[in-house]
Hints:
This protein has 245 residues and is mainly α. The longest helix is centred in the first third of the chain and has 27 residues. The chain has eleven helices and no strands.
Amino acid sequence: MPMADANMISAASPIWVVIFARIFLKEPLKSFDIINVFVTLLGILFIIRPPFIFGYDPLFEFDNQYYIAGVIVFFGSVLFQSNVYIMLRMLKGVHFSVTLSIFGLIGMLESAVFMFALGDGCIPACGEDRLMMVGVGLLSFLAQILLTVSLQLEEAGKVSIMRKAGDILFAFLFQILIFNELPGMWSIIGASLVSLTVLISSTKKIVDNLPEDHAIKQKYLACFYKKETPDENSLKLQSLSEKCS
């Protein structure tokens, strides 16, 4: 299947994380979070421009059998990846060094099994390639540490959205600064939408941590942060007592 189609399926992982977080972690599913997910996906859609929406290259040979098999396999990997966020969130009481030690041990064993099952292992002959492989390993390990710690501090749904948006934004920066490739119009629109979701999510997190009597909550965002009156609280307590009885 085309790489753009695969990237688009992978971009849907925040939706599954939000759904699984609601089912297994009982995290609140607010309308703001749902809108944020779909705006992020819309931005990624403009950036990737998957062929099944924007049309296939005339030179592309479409094989229906292998395409369906690829979609099923890749969709399964997205579901597994989404559940990693949920399990890491469940393990928030465990120190990240313990989680990463088990993660690295199992990954090493799985890699060894696949290496011996699929072919002989080899070491790159070029010294530069070896250094780059070591760099990939170090950066990946550091990224996994930061991901594990972030899931100990924040809800799984929000972390998945921010990570997917960050992947897109950093890819754009590297494309421009390192490879000197300027994005097209659709890519700029998509990147703007993704940047907007990151900005709104960050701003909302800051506002949520403000005191309830702060001017921003009381004057400018009063419709979003409605303060409950004593009568409303008493009605809620009364309804809860009735349910318990």
